[in-house]
Amino acid sequence: MEIAINALLTVVGLAMLCFGGNWLVTGGVSIAKKLRISQMVIGLTVIAYGTSTPELAASVAASLGAHTDLILGNVVGSNISNVGMVIGICAIISPLVVSKATTRKEVPIMIGVMLLLVAMSVDGEISQYDGALLIAGLIGFTVYTLSRAKKERKQEEEDTSVQKSSVPKAAGLIAIGSGLLYLGGYLTIENVVSIAQNIGVSETVVGITIVAIGTSLPELVTSITAIKKGHTDIGIGNIVGSNIYNILMIMGVASVITGIAVTPGIFTDYLVMIGFAVVLVAFLRSGIIPRPAGIGLAIAYAVYLGYTLLL
What we know:
By secondary structure, this protein is mostly helical.
C-alpha cells in the first residue's frame, strides 16, 4: 500500500514538473524579447536556475541530514543524465541546431568546472573552503553571463511586440513555473527514493541514478518544451547552465554547510561525466546534434545506468 501511495505522489510530482516547465519557458521567452536578451542567455540564467532548484533542495536536505554520499552522487549523476538522457531524448525528438558561440564559450566553462570538482576531490574531501571557492566561481559566472546579456542588449533593437504589461505576467509565469518545478521535483524525489529504499537499493546508487534522474526531470521537461516551441537555444542553454550550477551552486552550498567526503569509487563517475561533456563538444562543433547522435547518447546513458545498478 505504501509503495502504491508513493507511486501516485510521483505521478503528481511529474505533472507539476510538466506544467512548471511550460510556464518557465513561456515566461523566459517573453522576458528575453522585452529585454533584448538572447534565448541562450535566458537559458543559461533564469531557466537554468529554475530547473536546478530540485537538485539544490535535495542536496541541502541531504547535507542537513548528513547524507553526503547522496549529495555528490546527485550532482554527478544529474550532470551525466542532463547530457545522456535530456539532450539524447531531445535530439531524438528533433535534431538540435545550436549556436556555435555556445561551444566556444559556455561548454568549455562547463568542462572546466567539472575538472575543478575532480581536483578538489583528490584529497578525499570537498571542504567548506572548497565550497566557498565554488560559490565565488558561481558569482563570477553569473556576472559574466549578465555582462554578456548587457552587450547583446546594446546591439539589438527592442521587440515592440512585447507590451510592458506583459512583463509582470512573464515574471509571474517564471515564479510559478519555478515553484512548481521545485515542488514537483521534491514530490518526485522523495517518493521515488522511498520506493527504492523499500526494495533495498543503497544510498550511493540512489543518488547517482534515481535521485539524479528525478532532479533532471525539470531539465528534461523544460528542454523538450522549449524545443517544441522552436527555442532550441533555451533548451541547450538550460542544460549547459544547469551542469555549471549543479557544481558551483549546489556543491558549493552543500559543502559550505558540511564538508563532503569523497569515496574513491566516484572518480569512475567523474570520468563518465567528463566523457559525456567532451562528446557533447564534438557534436556542437558542427552546430547540430542529429537524431543518430541523440540515440547514441541515450543508449550510452542506459548502459551507464545498467553498469551502476549492477555494481
